[in-house]
Structure formats: C-alpha cells, structure tokens
Design a protein that fits this description.
The complex is a heterodimer of chains A (840) and B (278).
Chain A lengths: L20 E2 L28 E3 L2 E3 L30 E2 L1 H25 L3 H5 L38 H9 L16 H13 L11 H4 L37 H5 L9 H4 L18 H15 L14 E3 L6 E3 L2 H4 L1 H9 L10 E5 L5 H6 L17 H8 L7 H5 L12 H23 L2 H5 L7 H8 L4 H11 L3 H9 L10 H6 L5 H4 L141 H4 L4 E5 L2 E5 L6 H12 L10 H7 L8 H4 L2 E4 L2 E4 L19 H4 L18 H6 L18 H5 L11 H4 L18
Antiparallel strand pairs in A: 1-4, 2-3, 5-6, 7-9, 8-9, 10-11
Helix pairs in contact in A: 14-17, 16-22, 22-23
Chain B lengths: L1 H34 L4 H24 L8 H22 L8 H33 L9 H20 L6 H15 L4 H5 L4 H14 L4 H57 L6
The chains are: A mainly alpha (840), B mainly alpha (278).
Chain lengths: 840, 278
C-alpha cells in the first residue's frame, strides 16, 4: 500500500483552507509553496531565495520541495529555477462565501420585485381571501394605515393605528349593532344581567374548568375602550387569508371558553344540563295540548259535525317555517275556526247579548227625579241599561273637571227614592253629561267626541271607531232623545226643558194630555216619550205659544213637532228622504222603508215615531186603539197606537225584527237602549284595536280611564273571547295581548340557535314525539298560569329537553360538539352589507 | 468502544428526549397563546426567529475562536437539536400547509432548502467520516490534487519503463488505453459515494487480464501499478466523500443568508398589515 501523505514540518505543507486564494498550479498538482497574496495576485518568482554563506550563494529550497538543487544559485545570487506564475483560483471557502452573497442578493431582488411590483397587493397577501370577501380588491378596505400605491403599506409604520381602527373597517360593511366591540356585540348591561340571572338560578353550579388547554392559557389582551370597558375585535375570531373556501365563522371551542368562567370539556360530560329549554316563557297562544288531545278532539270526532276539522297529526297545526328552522303554526282559519268561530261571533252564546255594549242610555229613576223636581229633560223611562265601560271612558274624557261617573258610582240609579238632593244633583249632572256625550257623538266626529288623550294614528282610530255609521248614532238619539238639541240648549241657557214639569205645577196641571184621548190607562211611553213630561205634540211653548203640530217655521226651534233644521232644509213631517238626517221627524234613511212616517211595515221597532209595538204593524198616525192595553206607543198624538182598527191590506204580518240577528255577521246594531257591536269574526279589528289601545293605558295617568274598557273586553267570557286564546302579558305596567304565536322574525336577540331542518329526518318513526313529550302534570296547571300576567311564570305542556337527548348524536366524532353549532356569538341579528345605491 | 457507543446512544437519546420535551412545551404554549384571543402566529413566528438566531450562534462561535464560549462540538450539538426543533416550530408556524403567495413561497422554499440540507448534513456528518476513516489512507482534501498528480506521474513513468523490454507493451497499452484517463482526474465519484467497488473491480480485472502476458519483471511492474491504482482509488474515495462534506455546505449556508433577508422582509410586512391585537 502506498502511503501518500507524510506529516512533519519538513514533509508536510501547511494548508490554509480559510485563505481566499489558492495557487493556480494546484489543479496540476504542483502548487507553489508561497501561494497567492490576499489580493489574489501570484507572488511566485523563483523556487528559492539564495543566501550568501561564506562568500558563496547557497540554494535555500525547502526540504519539502526537494531540498537544495544541484545547480545552485547563479553567480549573481539569483535562483536558477524560475517558477512559472499562475492565475490564482478562489478557494473553496471563498467560492462558498461568494455564493452566499449572490444568494442573499437574489433574495433581495426577489423581495424587491414582490414588494415593488405592479401587483404588490396580490403578491404580499399571505393567502387568498375567502369567497365572502372577494369584493375586497385592495388592502385599504380592511387594513387601516395602508395607503394607495405599491409601497402604501409602509405608511403603516408612520401612522399610529389602533386595533379599533382596523375593526371599524369591518363594521363599515357589517352592521353588528351599536356595540360592535363588546363581548357578544351586546350591551354590557345586558351581559351583566344575564350573568346575574345565571348566578341566581337555583341549579347554577360553581365554575368548573374541564378544559386542559384553558389551564395553560395566556392572559387575554387587556384592550379597553375609552370608557374603560373591555373590547374584543373582529379579527380575534375571524381569520382571513386562509383560502377561498374558508369559513370565517369557524371558531374553536377553546377560544369561545376563554372569556367564560366555566370552561367545559366535552359536551356530553361537561356541558351544564339544559334548564327549561326550549321554553323561555309561556306560550303566547293559550292552547292546552293535553286537554285538546284528551278531550276536545275526541269529542269533535265523535260529534262529527259537518265542516269541523279535527287535527290528527302534529303537522296539521305545526309546519316548518322559513328554512325549516322553527316550527310555525298554521293560520287560525285553517286550524281553529271550525270549532271556535261560533263563540267568537257569538253564535254559540246561549244567554245575554251577542254584541259588546258600546253606548247605552243608563237606566234612571225618572219618576223620582221628576217628583223631586230634577230637570233632566227627556229620558227613556224603560231603560234599565247599565253604564258601559266605553261610556264611562268617554264621559271621563269629556273636557270638564267633573267626574260625573264617580259622582254616581255606587248608586242604584233605578231607585233614587231615598237619595238626597245632593245625590240627585249628581245624578242630574250625570244625565246631562250623557246627553251631551250623545249629542257630541252625533254632531261632531267620533275622534273629537272620544277625546283621545294623545294623537292616534288614522289606522288605529279607524279600528277604535269600528266604522260606526253616523246614522247609528242619529237613530239612537232620535229614538232615545227626540228633543235632545232642545233639551241641551235649554239646559245651557238655564231654562227648564220642555218636558220638565215642576212638582208644584204638576199638581195643578192636568194629567198627561196624552191620556185625554186615551181610554184612561196610563200609557207607557215608548222611547222618545216619557210620562210626566210634556212631550205632547201639543206641548205648550214657552216663547210664542205655538203648539200646532202642523205649525212649521216656529221661532222656537223645538216647539214644533218638526225638529229644527240645521241647514234650513225641509223639515216637513211628511218629507221623506230629507237630506238633514237629524232634522226630520222621519227616521234616518238607513232603511228605505223607514223614511216615511206613514210607511207601514217598518221592521225597526224604534225607528219611527209610530211605535210598531203593535203586532199589526199599523203605524198610522191617526190610528186609535181603544182596546189595546199593551200598546206602549207614544205616538204623535199621544194616542195609544195599538192595534189598528183597520186591517193591513198590503203587507203580510212580519216577524219581530231582531237587530242582533240581523248583525250576525258583525257590525253595529241598536237593541233596546244600547248600541252594540258584534264581532265580524276572528281578528276583528275593533276588538283588536281597543285591546291594544286600552292595554297600553295601564300605568299611565292620562290614559288610565281606558283601562276599564280593557277589563271589559279581556274577560274570558267577554264577547269575542279574545283573551281566551290570546294571552295577556304584563309589560312594565301595560297589558299586552299576544295576538300572534311565536314569530321567528321577531327573534332579534338569542343566545342559542336551533334549526329543525337537520333534525327532522333524525326523528324516525317517533316523529315529533322523539323530542317533544307531553308532561304528566294536570291540565289545570297550564291554564292557571294565564290568570296572572307574568309570562315567565308558566306550566308547560311538554317536557323540557335534556342535554342527554342531544348528546346522543352531538359528539366530537358524530354530529359535532362545537360551541358555535348551537350558540350564537352575535346575539343580535347580523345584517349583510347593503350598498346604498344612489338613484341615477 | 461499545461503552462509548452506549454512552453516545444514551446521550443522543437524552438529547432527543429533551428536544422533544422542549417542542411539546412550545406546542402547549402556542396553544395557550392562541386560545387567549391572541394571534398565535406572532408568538410562534418569533419563537421560530429565535431558534434561527440560536442556530447562527454556531457559525459565530466557529469564527470567534478566542472568546470562551464553550467548545465548538457543544455548539454543534446545539445546532443539531435546535435545528430539529426549528423544523417543528416552522411546521406549526406554517400550519402544515403549502404556501399560497410569492412571498410565502420564497420563505418556504428557502427554509426547506436550509432544513433539508441541514438534515442531510447531519446524516453525512455521521456517515462520511467513518467511511473515510475505514477506507484506506486519510488525506487532507486540499492535498488531493497534489497526490493525484504524483500518482499519475508515477504511473506514467512505470508504463514508460515497461516499454523498454521486449514483448512487454501490454502494460503500456493498458496505461494508454485505460489507466492514463483513470489517473488524470477524479473518477467514479458517484460510485464512491455509494461505496461501490464496481469501478475498481473493473480496473483490477483489466490489470489481471494483462498479467498473463508479462514476465516476472513485468509482473513486478504490474504489482507496482496495482498499488498505484489502489492508491488512486483511495484518493478518489477521499475526494468524493470529503468533497461531499464540503459541497453540502453550498446548499446549506447560502440559502440560510437568503432566508434571513426574506425573514426581515416578512416581519416588516406582517407588522405592516397586523390587526394590532397583541
């Protein structure tokens, strides 16, 4: 074996690999011993440098190169062996260093191209934007502090940019409410309240920490607003530049739990048990599933009434809403009307009126008032009607300081025999207030007469008035108080009314002139005429004495049988079709039959001067009935206009007219001494509007007078039965009627989210019962909770859902257990950006 | 030796475990940073930069031989294990995804080049020295051209010397046809990297072929020629493997500095577009 390498200072050269240059002859294998200089220039000249020793030049070639040569130096001392110079070569290390510099320079060039190139915005992006943000075409849209231009982003270092400035660029397009940078983008107060509520729950557990990662988590950034409230910004959770298919809403459970005191592990083992989910309040529509399933539906099936629809499956009533997210309820008409329409319209009402008492003439002890000399003018003697809630309210809203209703509260108005003078004075004031109210209703419009405490929208006013016709009021006034205007005018002037007979005068005055022609029996006056008061057509006039029935044009507007005309149109007694609805003795022309005093067969029993109380229907003004004792007609001549002696020749005998039956499809009608309203059906606008309006009056001083109307209409047995099914909630004093069931579109703030869509197929053969199971509590418990107005106090029909039901599928390997699957971070609704396009 | 191997193995195992432990700590810290509503890429990014700075300490230590910063061997070990740790940190920082922008491609490519060359260098550094020590005479790399020239001259002289005798042109012919090129420059580099003996076996067979045509003196020359051939073969092995040890640094060091340039630009850009959330 050949040994090539020798070590020793004489045998071995000293290698310097760190030198930048090597001899060019190294490639040939014969490098010079000196090597190039630091500048890379070849330094070689001769093999050796001869030395003068004892007068002789000696060769000094190194032993490594062979030692002194045979020839020796030249006589002049120069070495005889000239070495050939070389072209120095870079050493390996030098080459490596040079390569390093070139690589760094290349990197600088590439970086410069990327940064300064024409497409710097695109090249600098750390990744594509998501599809949702494809509209962002330049960095400035989302990065504050960045200016236009290729190097505009460098401006970021010159301008101080806070995190909130960046975050505000997000809210330029995304409206997350008024608190975009608070936790859950909700008001701090709301969050504090939720926390307090959670702590107050009896089943509230102490905080837990089942998340190992949370035990090693860093402290959260201490970012606070100018007011000191902690802030959290969009980019904390929403990470962009991760590809076009990235879901920006994906947030890990660990991040969610960072802020929460309790930190959960798995859903099945660590998440708190559900409390009362999904029932946050009692149902808005009072519907007892158990009683309907167990009693009413079977009854309906058994009864098999024609047209009655009985549900057999849940989907007969419950249908998936938009996107199958929530289950909504079908309309009343499709579900409930076949059974409940009757009680709403009153068709099923066995006893009592089928309409709502709106305006009534309260019954008064007219005889006592007359005896005691209390002048209340004309007043229907037979009225036994009570004061309606509407009238109480309308009377209270009249612009006077007197609470006339309060003055007669507690009195038996039908028996004032033991009343004191002061009491009678109150009754008097009350009666005149009623008359004035009726007059106002007739002479002004409803809204003025009703004297609302505040501005009411037109739509609402229309609902409050119920579209009542002026003729209804006029007809009523004429029937009840034929001389209403005259009475009021005299009263205002301090004069006694025409029908008033002072007690002293009564002793002297003959009996009722009406009875002169009578057989002697005291007639019971019909509406419009009261005994004891001089309502005879021949009643004396206090001014000019004219009492002629046929005397028109009297100066005394009310002295003639012909009431005054407001517009100077004809007030002829025989003038049919008078344009002045209230100026003719002839009733208003609501029905064509009743415009003529001589018109027989008028079915409106109180709409003509000639009371058709007789069965024959004979309403001849001159008809005399000496035999009738039933006749209560206070006819024009004060003659008992009972049965006519002349037989009717043209019209057959008619059945007694029932206005309530006539109004079976809803609307206004007058019965006895009351104007009533009958609901048109479900969602009746009149009832709806009054319940809303009056319900809002609770707790308000000026409007407290309307609360009694609410109390009347909201009774479970009231006409329309509105609140039998529509629950009433107390809301800061006001009473709110829940007209609609759960409205998903009204859900603006919600912590949890659930969609039926992915779960419907999971229900299997059980269907809805897979999750919704009826409770075993008594049905009464459910209905009892609606007696009060707190919607948070309730007894539910269905058992609350438990976590175990959901945990069967929602595991990490199954349906997933991310927090954001069921919980919303943004409690409020999140709007999509909408560009406000200016009109071209 | 066995004990040394066991000790080295224990030391290596301990270092690996320690490195793994540090990586786990980093991983947990990174998770803890990320769940705290912070942007973890800044955390793991600066950790990555710090690791690279530690890696650079090795280069500085080699240059600053006077200052007492510990043995180079120690820093080399640090360089190894921090290097592996850096690969893990980089994987976390890049989320294990391919880049999708030119700037990211630049960073990613340079880092991969540095990392891969580094890993290869570790492997080479473990394998090649043993290979060199076990394969004939070890020579200083810078002297290989000198020895190569020396061997070539000796072989030529031997071949010329063989021409003088009658009927002894075989060696000269062989030298002219085969051995001259063989001695002229480094040969069979890839084969020597694979530690393949096929090329030398072929030449040996060539030499064996002409032996029958040689007399005793010629056989003596042939024997010397064989020695020269073996020496040349050993020299080529030394050249190939030692050259590999030199060459891989060309793939490791220049990309490292290019990477630093790109990192500086990357940090500037990241902070220019940061959300400001700490």
């Amino acid at each position: 074996m050949i040994i090539l390498q020798k070590f020793g200072f004489k045998d071995s050269r000293y290698e310097r690999p760190q030198d930048k240059w090597v001899c060019g002859h190294l490639v040939e294998g014969n490098p010079c011993p000196l090597g190039p200089g630091a500048d890379g220039k070849c330094r070689v000249t001769t093999v050796c440098r001869p030395q003068m020793v004892d007068g002789r030049w000696e060769c000094r070639r190194s032993p490594q190169d062979g030692g002194p040569c045979e020839g020796g130096p030249l006589p002049d001392g120069r070495c005889c062996k000239q070495l050939e110079p070389c072209v120095s070569q870079s050493s390996l290390r030098a080459k490596r260093n040079r390569t390093t510099w070139w690589a760094a320079a290349l990197a600088v060039g590439i970086v410069a191209l990327i940064i300064g190139g024409g497409t710097a915005d695109e090249y600098l992006m750390p990744g594509p934007l998501s599809q949702a943000h494809a509209v962002a075409t330049n960095c400035r849209m989302c990065h504050a502090g960045v200016k236009l231009g290729n190097l505009g982003w460098l401006h970021r270092f010159a301008a101080a940019v806070s995190p909130v400035q960046n975050a505000k660029l997000c809210t330029t397009c995304h409206d997350v409410g008024k608190h975009p940078f608070t936790a859950h983008t909700s008001p701090i107060e709301q969050l504090r309240k939720m926390t307090a509520d959670l702590k107050a729950e009896p089943q509230n557990q102490p905080p837990i920490n089942d998340s190992w990662i949370q035990k090693i988590a860093f402290p959260v950034p201490n970012l606070k607003s100018a007011t000191g409230e902690p802030e959290i910004f969009c980019a904390t959770c929403h990470k962009e530049h991760k590809g076009i298919f990235t879901k920006l809403t994906t947030v890990s459970n660990d991040v969610c739990q960072t802020c929460h005191v309790s930190k959960f592990g798995t859903f099945a083992q660590s998440h708190p048990q559900f409390s009362q989910y999904p029932f946050m309040r009692r149902t808005r529509i009072v519907f007892d599933h158990k009683s309907h399933f167990g009693k009413y539906f079977p009854q309906a099936v058994q009864a098999a009434t024609a047209g009655q629809v009985v549900p057999t499956v849940c989907s007969d009533c419950h249908v998936p809403g938009a996107g199958q997210k929530y289950m909504e309820i079908r309309s009343y008409d499709s579900m409930c009307s076949s059974c409940h329409n009757g009680e709403i319209s009153g068709a099923n009402v066995a006893m009592g009126p089928k309409g709502i008492d709106f305006i009534a003439v309260p019954g008064l002890d007219v005889a006592t008032l007359a005896e005691r000399g209390v002048d209340i003018g004309e007043w229907p003697q037979n009225s036994e009607a009570g004061l309606t809630a509407f009238m109480r309210t309308l009377l209270a809203s009249q612009k006077n300081d007197q609470d006339v209703v309060k003055g007669v509260a507690g009195l038996d108005l039908l028996d004032l025999s033991t009343a004191s003078d002061a009491t009678l004075a109150k009754v008097k004031a009350f009666s005149w207030a009623v008359k004035r109210l009726l007059h106002n209703l007739e002479s002004t419009n409803m809204s003025s007469a009703m004297a609302m405490p505040h501005e009411v929208a037109q739509q609402q006013m229309a609902g409050l008035t119920g579209g009542i016709s002026h003729d209804v009021i006029v007809e009523a006034d004429r029937a009840w108080f034929p001389n209403l205007n005259d009475d009021l005018m005299r009263h205002d002037q301090g004069k006694p009314t025409k029908s008033f007979v002072p007690p002293a005068a009564k002793e002297k005055a003959p009996t009722d002139q009406v009875n002169k022609i009578n057989t002697g029996k005291t007639t019971s006056p019909e509406p419009g005429l009261t005994p004891g008061s001089n309502q005879s057509i021949l009643a004396p006039s206090n001014d000019n004495g004219s009492s002629d029935i046929l005397s028109p044009g009297s100066n005394d507007n009310n002295s003639a049988i012909l009431p005054p005309s407001n517009d100077n149109t004809s007030s002829e007694i025989l003038s049919p079709g008078s344009k002045d609805n209230g100026s003719s003795i002839l009733p208003s022309g609501n029905d064509n039959k009743g415009s003529n005093i001589l018109s027989p067969g008028n079915n409106d029993n109180s709409s003509t001067i000639l009371s058709p109380n007789s069965d024959s229907g004979n309403s001849d003004i001159l008809s005399l009935d000496n035999n009738s004792s039933k006749s209560k007609a206070g006819n024009l001549l004060g003659i008992d206009a009972g049965k006519s002696t002349e037989p009717s020749t043209t019209e057959p005998v008619n059945k007694p007219f029932n206005p309530e039956t006539y109004a079976e499809y809803g609307g206004w009608y007058r019965q006895d001494y009351t104007i009533r309203y009958r609901p048109t059906g479900h969602a009746d606008m009149f009832l709806h509007t009054w319940l809303d309006f009056a319900g809002q009056a609770f707790g308000k001083d000026k409007e407290s007078q309307f609360t009694r109307i609410f109390d009347q209409l909201a009774r479970k047995d009231s006409i329309g039965r509105c609140t039998k099914c529509h629950s009433v909630d107390d809301n800061h004093g006001a009473k709110i009627v829940n007209w609609l069931a759960f409205d998903p579109t009204g859900v603006k703030t919600r912590v949890t989210k659930f969609s039926h869509a992915p779960h419907i197929e999971m229900a299997g053969t059980k269907g809805c019962l897979a999750c919704h199971v009826l409770t075993t509590t008594a049905s009464d418990d459910y209905l009892k909770t609606y007696a009060a107005g707190d919607p948070q106090v309730y007894s539910q029909n269905f058992v609350s859902l438990k976590k175990d039901l959901c945990a069967n599928c929602h595991t990490a390997q199954g349906a997933g257990e991310n927090c954001t699957q069921c919980h919303k971070y943004h409690f409020t609704e999140f709007s999509r950006p909408l560009i406000k396009t200016k009109l071209p | 030796m066995a004990q040394m191997s066991r000790a080295l193995s224990k030391g290596t195992l301990l270092s690996v475990v320690l490195t793994g432990f540090v990586f786990i700590l980093f991983f947990l810290a990174n998770k803890g940073y990320g769940v705290a509503l912070r942007d973890a890429k800044y955390f793991n990014g600066w950790i990555l930069a710090s690791c690279m700075a530690v890696l650079m300490f090795f280069t500085l230590r080699k240059r600053m031989v006077i200052l007492p910063f510990g043995r180079v061997r120690f820093w080399l070990l640090i360089h190894y294990y921090v290097g592996f740790l850096t690969i893990g940190v980089f994987w976390i920082h890049s989320r294990g995804l391919f880049p999708d922008s030119p700037m990211e491609w630049l960073l990613w490519t340079l880092f991969i080049l540095v990392a891969v060359s580094g890993v290869i260098g570790v492997i080479i550094s473990k394998i090649v020295p043993h290979r060199l020590a076990s394969q004939g005479e070890r020579v200083i790399f810078e002297r290989i051209p000198i020895f190569r020239a020396q061997l070539a001259a000796d072989a030529e002289a031997l071949a010329l010397d063989s021409i003088g005798g009658e009927n002894e042109v075989s060696l000269a012919e062989l030298h002219k046809n085969v051995l001259a090129a063989y001695f002229a420059r480094p040969r069979n580099i890839l084969a020597h990297l694979r530690m393949s003996n096929r090329p030398i076996a072929r030449i040996r067979s060539e030499l064996d072929t002409v032996e029958r045509y040689l007399d005793d003196e010629g056989k003596v020359r042939l024997g010397k020629m064989r020695d020269l051939v073996e020496a040349k073969n050993n020299l080529d092995i030394q050249y190939a493997n030692a050259g590999l040890l030199k060459l891989w640094l060309f793939l490791h060091i220049p990309p490292t500095f290019a990477l630093f340039v790109a990192i500086i630009a990357h940090v500037v850009i990241e902070y220019a577009f940061s959300t400001g959330i700490p």
